[in-house]
From TrEMBL:
Residues 1-33 form the signal peptide. The keyword Signal applies. It comes from Klenkia terrae. This is Uncharacterized protein. Keywords: Signal. Residues 99-118 have a biased composition (Low complexity). PROSITE patterns: PROKAR_LIPOPROTEIN, TAT. Residues 99-119 are annotated as: Disordered.
Length: 165
C-alpha cells in the first residue's frame, strides 16, 4: 500500500475537504434562512383563489357525503372502509382551516358528482377519483402550504381509490 505525502495547508488557505464541506452547507443555510424570513403575505391568497378553495371544500364535502351514502347502501363496505371515510373527513377539516372565510358550501364548477351505477363501491370509487382529480388540478394554481395541502389530499385520495378497488 502506498502512502501519499501529506502537505499541510498553508495558513489562511482552505483544504479541498473544508471547501467541499462549506459548499455543501450553503444550500442548507439558504433553506433555513428562507424558512424563517418569509416576506409578509407570502402565502396570501387572491380573491380568485379564495373561490377555488371554496370549490375544493365543496368537492371534499361531496366526497364525505358519498362515503355516508355508500356505507348506508353497503354495510360491508362501511366495515371495510371506515378508516378511509375518517381520512376524508380529516382532509375536509384541513381544507376548511386553510380556506380563508369559507362560510358555506360552494358548488364545484367542474360539474356534478359522477353518475351513479347502482354499485356502491364503484360509485364511491368514481367519487374518490373525481375529487382527487379536482384537488390535483386546483393545486397547480397555488403556491406554498395550500398547494402542498391540495397535492397531499389528491395523493391520499388516489391511494384510497386503489384501496377501494
Amino acid at each position: 500500500m502506498s502512502t501519499r505525502p501529506v502537505h499541510p495547508a498553508a495558513a489562511g488557505t482552505l483544504s479541498r475537504r473544508s471547501l467541499l464541506v462549506a459548499a455543501g452547507a450553503l444550500p442548507l443555510l439558504a433553506v433555513v434562512a428562507g424558512c424563517t424570513d418569509a416576506p409578509p403575505g407570502a402565502d396570501a391568497v387572491t380573491p380568485a383563489q379564495v373561490d377555488q378553495l371554496a370549490e375544493q371544500v365543496a368537492v371534499q364535502e361531496q366526497l364525505v357525503a358519498a362515503y355516508a351514502t355508500a356505507f348506508t347502501a353497503a354495510p360491508d363496505l362501511a366495515a371495510a372502509a371506515t378508516a378511509l371515510a375518517d381520512q376524508a373527513q380529516a382532509q375536509l377539516d384541513r381544507l376548511r382551516a386553510a380556506a380563508p372565510s369559507v362560510t358555506g358550501s360552494a358548488t364545484p364548477s367542474g360539474g356534478t358528482a359522477p353518475a351513479a351505477t347502482g354499485d356502491p363501491r364503484a360509485d364511491l370509487r368514481a367519487q374518490v377519483a373525481a375529487a382527487a382529480q379536482s384537488h390535483a388540478t386546483a393545486c397547480l394554481d397555488f403556491t406554498g402550504a395550500r398547494a402542498a395541502l391540495l397535492g397531499s389530499i389528491a395523493a391520499g385520495l388516489r391511494g384510497q381509490d386503489g384501496q377501494l378497488a
